Amino acid sequence: MQKERRREVLSPIFALLFFCLLLFFVQGVNAQEDSVKAVDSLSLKVALLQLESDTGYSFFFNEDWIVNKKVPANIQEDGIGPTIDKLLLNTNLNFYILENEKRVILLRNTIIYDELPSYFFGRPDSAISAGNELITEKRIRPTFILKKSEQEKRQFPLTRIGRANTNNLKSSYMLKGKVTNRRTNEAIPDLAIRSKGSGQVVISDENGNYAIELPAGYNIISASAMGIENMEREIVIYNDGILNLLMEEGLQELEEVTVEADAVSNVEETSTGTETINLEESKNIPLVLGERDLLQVAKALPGISSAGEGATGLNVRGGKTDQNLVLLDDAVIYNPTHFFGIFQALNPFTTEGADIYKGSIPVEFGGRLSSVFDIRTKNGNVEKFSGEGSIGPVTGNLALEIPVKKDTSSIIVGGRGAYADWILRALDEESLNKSQASFIDVIAKYHHRFNENSEIRATAYFSRDDFSITSDSLYNYTNRLGSIKWNHRHSEKTTAALLLANSDYRFGIDFDGESNTDFDLNYSINETELKYKLSTRLNDKHDLDYGISTKFYSVNPGSIEPQGNESDIAPVFIDTERAIEGALYLGDEIAVTNKLSLELGLRYAFFAALGSGTQRTYQQGLPRNEDAVRDTISYGSGDVIETYGGPEARLGLRYLFTPDFSVKASFNNAYQFIHTLTNNTTVSPIDTWKLSDLNIEPQTGLQASLGFYKNFNDNMFELSLEGYYKRLDNVLDFKTGADLFLNENVETEVLQGDGKAYGVEFLIKKNRGKFNGWLGYTYSRSFYRFDSPFSEERINGGDFFPSNFDKPHDISLIANYKLTKRYSFSANFVYQTGRPVTFPVATFEFRGSDFVAFSNRNQFRIPDFYRLDLGINMEGNHKKNKLAHSFWTLSVYNVLGRNNPYSVFFVTEEGQVKALQSSIFGIPVPAITYNFKF
């Protein structure tokens, strides 16, 4: 049996190895094309002087033109003209030979014309004979530089591009290059480059690359982007060439800048269901206890919600919380929250922003069914030491940006800490007087730019939560991750990135009670990923993304050990689970026409559960329990237990009816090989992760979406309407009364069934002006079905029932009003349908004992949720020469004092079952935070 399974995995492994060899072969070819052959070289000046001595010709040139230019030393002489041509091949220099005077004149970019074409002064085309055909001369005028008097009036820097060639005279040439932030050395995407003469406009891509076709000769180009100072340049273009731009950061107001890039992507991008959040957007949203929170901003967007106030995790388009891939600088963060979801575990002053994919998931991502949160950390300041921080009622925060080598490398370091214990002790609840709750998180990122084609980024992150709501139990959970990424530009068309990342999540419980039952309980999951991805711009019609990735998982399903010599707890250790997950992918973004674009992608996902360990097999036709065990199989270290995998499609379409109105559609399917095990109503930080194995199959899902996008009033308003449908297979849920933790045979306690979700999302956003914000509305439904021939494996009779996070109506309103440059007001209103719950509906007596009969799973709902928050931002004066710039934030969370239920539970008092409601914040919560920046 084991040998058969080994054979099953050989084919995908050979495919992975073959793809690796293919990638390295392709890159080897690229490297060979782009590199200079290893031959002896000498300076161009020395070569010219040597040629002058050997031939008797006199050379005339400006030495500034040939500084640091090298040529091969072994160029074979083949006449004066061909020899000079070889020497100048990789420069922008031309030459003109005066044979009678034995003089050679070098020219920068241009050439000397000793004869003009017949049509230069307006005469008609002339026809010349070529065999039996008549060929009309090209009516292309040579390019000449401006008069000296006009050059003296020039206001912008003049740049000459290309090397003129009489055999390649065109009416227009292609200018390419990369746009870079001078301070951070980061590429600048979405930068608009305009030609004032031709009216051409192009936008730089995500790597800062651009390409624009310009008329031959004199041009003025301008470049502008959000937060970037506008630049204008005068150029004279003689041939195709490269112009890299170093841009300065601008001092525009955020709301004036943010919207333009968003407006372009909203209509013009091919992908559906994509949201981009700049962390500055959270500055003006009133949040609990004054803490900026990117995840809370995300929950205010259509299609994204949570199970309740204080619940860890997000639900995206009707998906479970474990179906979201949350990345911090390309490394997975398993629990991105502190204190049961009340705070995010991300430092707001080191976080740059996030791209959220809830519809069209890029082909490079996989392993989750619902969404990807791609969170980015800022690069540090490479010019000067700077910092930012805040002091609030329960948290303190500081981030420092430290240049390592000016204009080349930097480090950004951030740290946060909470001191919330005093709040718990101040509450009028005696049982909480000895409670504690605190957290810390630290992050550091190093960024080094070797040259314009190569850079490296390394991130390290750690967070820890400690909390104790009862006096005898101390809970803790930690996140630790690290990533290192090398970005390299192989050629003008191809860029690559090599990534190595590791993530670790664990939790523990230290129980110290009055009886002899003290124990330490632990759980952990660790994963390591290696990814190599490439992007190639084949031409104006095709942009390719392709690559390979692999992960290794190691899961400690749990252990419990006695604490102290007097503890009666028996130790339990569950076998470690291991697995590998891999993928190959290829995607193409196709510009069919100016109006129609397509995204086509194919990804092959592969998973193998590995030994050592044991797995049970169960008899067919019987419910899966202890009585149905057929065999127990033992696997050695590295043995393949089971393999899964298959193709994943990524399809997208966009059609532009007008420049500000488009329709988009998408389809994708995915595999998920990792699951959470929980029987809590809402997700908690002590939920465990389970790998697919012989008895638990991977989850699969597909999603189709259709959307309409429209901008108004010069992109001041954005409007979108998008609908989606999801289908899910092999989703996990628990049997009634299931015991999931520290269970060696957890497959007997869970069920796998079907799911479906559908909905419509509406968003209207005002981007500019004193009053701005957005209104989002989502109608969504999410259902599960667990059917089986056996009653103990059926839920609700095998019919579809609402999931724990099914909330049909969700409304979010974010409003900001800027009274002056220093004072602004903000409001946040949220309304959601109450989530489903299961209630007891009757009591009965059996053999002298009282029992409770419950309703069907999730048959009832808790009361609807709504909340209003208000805030005021008061900025300090805007004097330039200050030690630090600061502002105060005053906010009131839950202004209306709404006692929104977090959960409903039942107790028996005096023989009667009573329903009780728990809430997180049942009163208004004011906060004042001081923020500073230097």
Automatic annotation (TrEMBL):
It is a multi-pass membrane protein. Keywords: Cell outer membrane, Membrane, Receptor, Signal, TonB box, Transmembrane, Transmembrane beta strand, Transport. Residues 290-367 form the TonB-dependent receptor plug domain. InterPro entries: Beta-barrel_TonB, Beta-barrel_TonB_sf, CarboxyPept-like_regulatory, Plug_dom, Plug_dom_sf, TonB-dep_rcpt-like. Pfam families: CarbopepD_reg_2 (PF13715), Plug (PF07715), TonB_dep_Rec_b-barrel (PF00593). Gene3D superfamilies: Carboxypeptidase-like, regulatory domain, TonB-dependent receptor, beta-barrel domain, TonB-dependent receptor, plug domain. It is found in: Cell outer membrane. Its main location: membrane. Signal peptide: none annotated. Residues 444-895 form the TonB-dependent receptor-like beta-barrel domain. It comes from the Bacteria. Belongs to the TonB-dependent receptor family. This is TonB-dependent receptor. It comes from Croceivirga thetidis.
